[in-house]
Specification:
16 helices, alpha/beta, 5-stranded mixed β-sheet
Amino acid sequence: MKSKLWAMVLLLMLGGLTGCGGNGGQNGHLQQVTFLLDWFPNVNHTGVYVAQEMGYYAEEGLSVSIMQAGDGSTAQLLAAGQGDFGISYQEDLSYARSQDVPAVAIAAVIQHNTSGFAAPPDRNIKSPADYAGKVYGGWGSPAESAILQNLMEAHGADFSKLTIVNIGSADFFSAIESGAIDFSWIFEGVTGVEARLRGMELDYTPLREENPAFDYYTPIIICSESMLNEQPERVRAFLKATARGYAYCIAAPEAAADILLQAAPELDAALVKEGQAYMAGQYQADAEAWGIMQQSTWQAYADFMLENGLLQAPIDVTQAFTNDYLP
């Protein structure tokens, strides 16, 4: 493990010495690029902040502005020209493609789905077989109901006996502690880490272990089809620098956490540092390189979405994502 870490650090150092081949390294002119977040800054986004702070984008001739998205999905905003790159999810982009929104995934931020359903032990929820008679708190997405029904039926539970309530963006812990819900959907790198810091045990069902179709990419980096067609070199430059940013996060999670906290000092420092340590093993995981996506992963979840009425029409997944612009 140590040898791998030092090898990555060495690559980063060499990259800093030799990575000045971009436009910015040659003539000082930086192209302006806008990157849209999906939510407030968090450990999913750290590689972008690192690439910005460490000058990786500048070395590729880019000046990147990181912004929180406004109304509408990231795919819709980018397709409408209201940004250059952004964060989305396989589910959202698949739905957008079914509506002929011309957006494309160009990198997976994380290789595997690090989310699942969690409950405190006193709710006696050990698996989806125990969801019947309980109250689930979610955000009102049709995909939630479809996935919950799939899991419950696979475990022989009656989906009609599950109560689903919309808690929107309410905090998981306050919703649980109030007794309003019994379980909810969490991400391991954020809520899972916070639970450990609180000393709170959780009974947890990872989605990726329940159904191969649920090991989809979340989050992803996307751009518009017009960006790929008209400015392919800008896409390659952006991904080259971004990949370096995530490599830094993998090799030096504590330093990466400091960079995120510098950019977003309102975040909880302990949560960011613990979350970054966890995410260091998740960004690339078992993939050949950071960002790579598999057609089988896209197809499996697209099939599930279509079968459950979550897509208006079938999509060609080979047009929904590409690895061609990764370094």
